[in-house]
Write a structure and sequence with these properties.
This is Dynamin-type G domain-containing protein. GO terms for molecular function: GTP binding; GTPase activity; microtubule binding. Keywords: GTP-binding, Nucleotide-binding. Belongs to the TRAFAC class dynamin-like GTPase superfamily. Dynamin/Fzo/YdjA family. With 573 residues, this protein is mostly helical. The chain has 3 domains: 226 residues, Rossmann fold (3-Layer(aba) Sandwich); 243 residues, Dynamin, middle domain (Four Helix Bundle (Hemerythrin (Met), subunit A), Up-down Bundle), CATH 1.20.120; 31 residues. The chain has 22 helices and 8 strands. Strands 4-3-2-5-1-6-7-8 form an 8-stranded mixed beta sheet, with helices on both faces. Strand 3 and strand 4 form a beta hairpin. The longest helix has 41 residues. It is rod-shaped and about 145 Å long. It starts with a helix and ends with a helix.
Length: 573
């Protein structure tokens, strides 16, 4: 029993230290099992608690004295000296206690507001009381004065509403010794007036006169025992009457409640720990204070970003496949859409062949005409080539954005996120420019030097029965020009087929490969030359995030401690 109560007390004190008073708590069950004392104003609630505890410590007076819930923990300690303390004032210790309990003294229910009180005081108090006793694991100590009708008892009324079966309500009758002569509380104590699952318990509290005479709690308890033992009506009930019996009943019941709730509390704590660890991981580690630590943090975050970026390119994350789509679909389709027919129309072929001959017609084949026709076709390939470079560039930039958003550590530092993003984009822009130069050079090389073997393998006019003695103008007939057009188109298609393979290689080499190798190299170089104040600005974490991380770390420490405490108690059992 001592271990169980000690466990709950430790968890409650830890929660209180964190400002967790049960409202919207992640561990509500740690508070739900506390006995709450409820009753009408001046019904003797605080006096009952003092009798249970065995110490005069609660405020007294007329009207509303208990103005807020008071939480008091009592537990045995080694040795003869015992103490109790309120969690809002842990430095003040009260000694000479004997029962393992944690109690909540609630303000008394009232029916009307008196002078000096707000009009909402009645509802405010009831709402406050309900917030405690409606919790399904809270043990309700319903205090009713014996010299009033139970039918009008505020404590019974509100307890019945929140606990209709009476499974967690202990009825306590006070002021039995103040009943009119000729009346007694036997019907109430026997449950005939109002039955609860647990037998009613009668108590005799100290009167104001006793308190004025400094009658201590030990003497008061002796008087109480004598009263029930020597009063004819209550003698047969004396063994289950009095504050001492009430304390034992509450302690025993509280033990059973705590035992039943331990598995649920363990599960709740484990879940809370996992959630806290996940959020702390998402928020990232605290910022280092020294320059070296800051620089290391930046480099580590950059390494994480770079690793994620490479995973996108290498296929471990989505996105890199879009580059292959450019090479396998977009670029070939663009090549096929080139309108070589316009360049190779009869009119254009005749024009270029004639112009290329100048004042002296060609002797065997219009070589210069062929060159001009081929160049006019190949130049148009520059457009699809540049478009392929730009398409890959756009994909690489999009993957930078994805990698940045997937690097959780960058969410912690907005300025660093922008700097890395800008540095990556600048690098990609430089790579695109180099890639365009290299890719267009491939096209220009095809224009500057033709593959001679292709033309050597073409059939000559004589072999086809042509008559070289015909007039030069006869050689510019449609059939002849059509064959030239066909030969040029065949050569251009051969070049397109070659460039379809070489241009993707150039793009990969100049853009994709370089992005994997040197994306942040210039950023690292510039970072090393920065002063510490500029490096610190990169780690400009949101103060709200810093505060939340500290609070989460503190709460995680609480839950881990709670988990260890519970495990120790469970294994001890």
């Amino acid at each position: 029993m001592e271990n169980l109560i000690s466990l709950v007390n430790k968890l409650q004190r830890a929660c209180t230290a964190l400002g967790d008073h049960g409202e919207e708590s992640a561990l509500p069950t740690l508070w739900d099992s506390l006995p709450a004392v409820v009753g009408g104003q001046s019904s003797g609630k605080s006096s009952v608690l003092e009798s249970v505890v065995g110490k005069d410590f609660l405020p007294r007076g007329s009207g509303i004295v208990t103005r807020r819930p008071l939480v008091l923990q009592l537990h045995r300690i080694n040795g003869d000296r015992e103490y109790a303390e309120f969690m809002h004032n842990p430095t003040v210790k009260y000694t000479d206690f004997v029962v393992d309990l944690t109690l909540i003294d609630l303000p008394g229910l009232t029916k009307v507001a008196v002078e000096g009180q707000s009009d909402s005081i009645v509802q405010d108090i009831e709402t406050m009381v309900r917030s405690f006793i409606e919790k399904p694991n809270c043990i309700i100590l319903a205090i009713s004065p014996a010299n009033q009708d139970l039918a009008t008892s505020d404590a019974i009324k509100i307890s019945r509403e929140v606990d209709p079966k009476g499974e967690r309500t202990f009825g306590v009758l006070t002021k039995i010794d103040l009943m009119d002569k000729g009346t007694n509380a036997v019907d109430m104590l026997e449950g005939r007036s109002y039955r609860l699952q647990y037998p009613w318990i009668g108590v005799v509290n100290r009167s104001q006169q006793d308190i004025n005479k400094s009658v201590d709690m030990i003497a008061a308890r002796h008087i109480e025992r004598e009263y029930f033992a020597n009063t004819t009506e209550y003698k047969y009930l004396a063994h289950r009457m009095g504050s001492e019996h009430l304390a034992k009943m509450l302690s025993k019941h509280l033990e059973s409640v705590i035992k039943s709730r331990i598995p649920g509390i363990q599960s709740l704590i484990s879940k809370a720990i996992a959630e806290l660890e996940a959020e702390l991981h998402r928020l990232g580690k605290p910022i280092a204070a020294d320059a070296g630590g800051k620089l290391y943090t930046i480099m580590e975050i950059c390494r994480m970003f770079d690793g994620i970026y490479k995973e996108h390119l290498d296929g471990m994350r989505p996105g890199g496949e879009k580059i292959y789509y450019v090479f396998d679909n977009q670029f070939p389709v663009a090549l096929k859409r080139l309108q070589f027919d316009k360049n190779l129309s009869m009119e254009n072929v005749r024009k270029l062949i004639t112009q290329a001959d100048g004042y002296q017609p060609h002797l065997i084949a219009p070589e210069q005409g062929y060159r001009h026709l081929i160049e006019s076709c190949l130049v148009s390939i520059r457009g699809p080539a540049e478009a392929a470079v730009d398409a890959v560039h756009a994909i690489l930039k999009e993957l930078v954005r994805k990698a940045i958003s997937e690097t959780d550590e960058l969410n912690q530092f907005p300025t660093l996120r922008v700097e890395i993003s800008n540095a990556a984009f600048e690098s990609l822009d430089r790579m695109r420019n180099e890639s365009k130069k290299s890719t267009l050079k491939l096209v220009d090389m095809e224009c500057s030097y033709l593959t001679v073997d292709f033309f050597r393998k073409l059939p000559q006019d004589v072999e086809k029965g042509g008559n070289p003695t015909n007039s030069i103008f006869d050689r510019y007939n449609d059939s002849y020009l059509r064959r030239i057009s066909t030969n040029v188109l065949a050569y251009v298609n051969m070049v397109c087929s070659s460039l379809r393979n070489s241009i993707p290689k150039s793009i990969v080499y100049c853009q994709v490969r370089e992005a994997k190798r040197t994306l942040l190299d210039r950023f690292f170089t510039e970072l090393g030359a920065r002063e510490i104040k500029h490096i610190s600005k990169l780690l400009d974490e949101d103060p709200a995030v810093m505060e939340r991380r500290a609070n989460l770390a503190k709460r995680l420490e609480l839950y881990r401690s709670a988990q260890a405490e519970i495990d120790a108690v469970v294994w001890a059992r």
